[in-house]
UniProtKB/TrEMBL annotation:
Protein name in the entry: Methylated-DNA--[protein]-cysteine S-methyltransferase
Domain Methylated-DNA-[protein]-cysteine S-methyltransferase DNA binding: from-to ranges: 87-169
Provenance organism: Bradyrhizobium ontarionense
InterPro entries named among the record's database cross-references: MethylDNA_cys_MeTrfase_DNA-bd, MethylDNA_cys_MeTrfase_DNAb, MGMT_N_sf, WH-like_DNA-bd_sf
Coiled coil: none
């Protein structure tokens, strides 16, 4: 089979998925236009050629499509190619895959579960290197990266907040609401 990729339709636009003989190597959620989605996927996986997906890839596509329609999905049977992923990042991804749909964890909670309380920067780096978007649901991790309203790496134009809302989650913030944050620099009426 070799290294391949395919594009597929979802409720939020055209996604891409790449794979090797060992399993999925990456998922790309929709960019503003399909050509941009393809470019981003090709930049990450230049050796991949467009081809018909095998059953493992079809299983992932069905799951991603269902998840982006707001359905509950179990990706535990989907095989990932972790060959280029460091052992630490694999541990982070395993913990993240265990976060239930509709729930979130803070980076501190991940660090505690991994027994590495001072590794927040390493956890943040693992999240930004996650090419397995949705299958390794990094959108369920709060307090790391760009915030909930900005896209995650490989999330195209879809924000973490949007992904969480599809799951029925209520994203947490770090101490106060986003509304409160907007009021911080506002002059008060006298």
């Amino acid at each position: 089979m070799g290294r391949g990729y395919t594009m597929f339709d979802t409720a939020l636009g055209r996604c891409g998925i790449a794979w090797s003989d060992a399993g999925i190597t990456g998922v790309q959620l929709p960019e503003a236009r399909e050509i941009e989605t393809r470019r981003r996927l090709f930049r990450q996986f230049p050796e991949a050629r467009e081809q018909r997906p095998c059953s493992n890839i079809e299983l992932a596509i069905e799951g991603i499509t269902a998840m982006l329609r707001g359905q509950d999905v179990d990706f535990s049977d989907v095989v990932l190619d972790l060959g280029g992923v460091t052992p630490f990042n694999q541990r982070v991804y395993d913990v993240i895959r265990g976060i239930p749909r509709g729930e979130t964890r803070s980076a501190d909670e991940l660090a505690e579960e991994l027994h590495v309380p001072k590794a927040l920067n390493s956890i943040a780096q693992a999240l930004t290197r996650n090419t397995f978007v949705l299958i390794v649901p990094c959108h369920r991790v709060r307090d790391v990266g760009n915030g909930l309203d900005k896209p995650s790496p490989n999330s195209g134009t879809i924000s973490k907040r949007r992904l969480l809302s599809l799951e029925g989650a209520r994203p947490h913030t770090t101490g106060f609401t986003l509304f409160d944050a907007l009021l911080v620099d506002r002059p008060r009426a006298s």
